[in-house]
Design goal:
InterPro entries: DUF112_TM. Residues 20-445 form the DUF112 domain. Keywords: Membrane, Transmembrane, Transmembrane helix. It comes from Martelella mediterranea DSM 17316. This protein has 22 helices and 2 strands. It has one domain (4-226, 241-491). The protein has helices at residues 4-13, 17-35, 41-51, 57-74, 76-81, 94-102, 106-140, 144-161, 166-180, 206-225, 250-254, 257-272, 278-292, 304-320, 322-328, 334-345, 354-357, 359-388, 395-414, 417-435, 440-464, 475-491; strands at 183-184, 191-192. By secondary structure, the protein is an all-alpha fold. Strands 1-2 form a two-stranded antiparallel ribbon. Helix 9 (166-180) crosses helix 21, helix 10 (206-225) packs antiparallel against helix 19 (395-414) and helix 16 packs across helix 21 (440-464). 69% of the residues lie in helices and 1% in strands. The relative contact order is 0.20. The termini are far apart.
Length: 507
């Protein structure tokens, strides 16, 4: 565990003017992107990663995490004003946020969402800072055999929880394994699947591939879904004539403190489990709050408890999903998987050794996360009315601009048109994967984890001299493999249903 001087040094590094300015910029970008329906937070992260290529490591990571935090806040704005969540995380917020806005209190609803979102985010960051270093110490005691078993468990859990079919999830992960095999064999030093192309000797560029799978495929999907008959709901007038409807008092916030605390706990637990995401946390917290309320019939009619339950939970996932990434090197969700590529670009390998080798960087990152929360609050207070104007941005402007940024990012990271070709190819692949129900999350996490899994498997084979019975001498590995079998048996056969979209509120 890092010493006190390392911790203080890292926290101090986060307080430089450059870092603070990039944190504010990241929060503002995230909130704007979240406020534009059709522009997803993952698209913003995928596009932003290449822009950090020339930045200092701490500055780059602080900027990207700030984009992530800001997007969660910004997604609630269209959910409240036009009943169209800007990001999937804010879908549950629309259930009570939009009815409150229709009652003439849109600014009050947006401030509720902002305050409870910041509360959930800060609380989960404190949990991350508190438990990540001890968990990393535990992970360091695990050998290659145990880590291999842990990664197998992670894959079975992730593929079982995301998407509607575990079989399709496993197929998507296997496809990720296949593409991750392109390049030089780490054990033998021979080329694999390069087909004589020198561009493939270093493997497929992760950033260009991520931009294609997440951003370009989503642009293709949105364009395909757009028809001339598509109409946009008229935005609600943001400014209210009644001063009481424009703000939230401290007493009103404290009236829902137990709801917010329970939501933060749910979001933190969900975020720490690989494969689950913010949308799951938001809906689960909302459902629990409604079921335990004495007057559940008031939900869906503008109850602030619904906003508190959704926003505190989905924001708590942002910090908690870094727990498995920083301690085990396993991304908890797709946003964390994208952060892995940012770590790798800057020469940092996520995992338990990170606290020992890069302790100052990690605590600098923790400090930046705390600063980003307060910036989220300040930027949200100032920019809430401005971001609401982004709702009216036409698709004919949003999609071409986003595609141009995607092409620029792919070209910059690859240094040639090869990155653009990869981006477009995986954009088409991502579109058809979503179209036929294959998990893009499982694909990317499979791609990201394959090099480490392959390395640990080779080490395990060398240690065991090819004898599989050696695993019986490692009880922790046995337990993890047993849990993998249990997860396949439990998660595989059961029917998966898509999460229901929030029903539109009738006028």
């Amino acid at each position: 565990m890092p010493d006190f001087a390392t911790i203080i040094g890292g926290l101090t590094d986060a307080l430089t003017l450059t870092n603070i300015l990039y944190i504010i910029l990241g929060v503002a970008v995230g909130q704007i992107v979240g406020a534009i329906p059709g522009m997803t937070l993952l698209m913003a992260l995928a596009i932003a990663i290449p822009l950090t290529y020339t930045l200092d490591t701490l500055t780059a990571l602080a900027f990207l995490i700030s984009v992530n935090k800001g997007g969660t806040v910004g997604g609630a704005i269209p959910a409240i004003l036009i009943n169209t969540p800007g990001t999937p995380e804010s879908a549950a917020t629309a259930l009570d946020g939009h009815p409150m806005a229709k009652k003439g209190r849109p600014m009050k609803a947006m401030k509720y969402s902002l305050y409870y979102s910041v509360f959930g985010d800060i609380s989960s960051d404190i949990v991350l800072i508190t438990i990540s270093a001890p968990l990393a110490l535990v992970a360091l005691r695990m050998g290659p055999i145990e880590i291999t078993a842990l990664m197998i468990l992670a894959f079975t859990v992730i593929t079982g929880l995301v998407g509607n079919s575990m079989v399709k999830g496993l197929m998507a992960a296997a496809l990720g394994f296949l593409f991750a095999s392109v390049g030089i064999d780490p054990g033998l030093g021979t080329p694999r699947f390069t087909f004589g192309s020198l561009d493939l000797y270093d493997g497929l560029p992760l950033t260009a591939m991520s931009i294609g799978l997440l951003a370009v495929s989503e642009i293709f999907r949105q364009i395909a879904a757009t028809t001339r008959a598509t109409s946009t709901a008229s935005p609600i007038r943001v400014r209210s004539d009644d001063p009481e409807d424009r703000g939230v008092t401290f007493a009103e916030l404290m009236a829902n403190k137990y709801v917010a605390i329970r939501a933060f706990v749910i979001g933190t637990v969900i975020g720490a489990i690989p494969g689950l995401g913010s949308a799951t946390a938001g809906f689960l917290s909302y459902s629990v709050t409604k079921q335990t309320a004495k007057d559940p019939e008031s939900f869906g009619k503008g109850d602030p408890r619904g906003i508190a339950a959704s926003e505190a939970a989905n924001s708590a996932v942002v910090g908690a999903n870094l727990i498995p990434l920083l301690t085990l090197g396993i991304p908890g969700n797709i946003a964390a998987a994208l952060l892995v590529s940012a770590f790798i670009i800057h020469g940092v390998q996520p995992g338990p050794l990170l606290f020992e080798e890069q302790g100052r960087l990690i605590y600098g990152l923790f400090g930046a996360m705390l600063i980003a929360n307060f910036c989220n609050l300040g930027v949200g207070q100032v920019g809430m009315r401005i971001w609401s104007l982004a709702i009216a941005a036409p698709n004919s402007v949003v999609y071409p601009a986003a595609l141009l940024l995607c092409i620029t990012g792919a070209y910059v990271t690859a240094g040639s048109m090869f990155g653009v070709y990869i981006m477009l190819a995986f954009g088409v692949l991502g579109y058809f994967m979503q179209r036929f129900g294959f998990s893009v999350v499982a694909f990317i996490i499979g791609y990201v984890l394959t090099p480490e899994l392959e390395s640990k498997m080779v080490q395990s084979i060398l240690i065991s001299r090819g004898d599989p019975m050696v695993v019986f001498q490692h009880p922790i590995a046995l337990v993890l493999l047993a849990l993998s079998v249990v997860s396949i048996v439990y998660l595989g056969p059961r029917k998966r249903t898509k999460k229901p979209e929030p029903e539109p509120i009738e006028d």
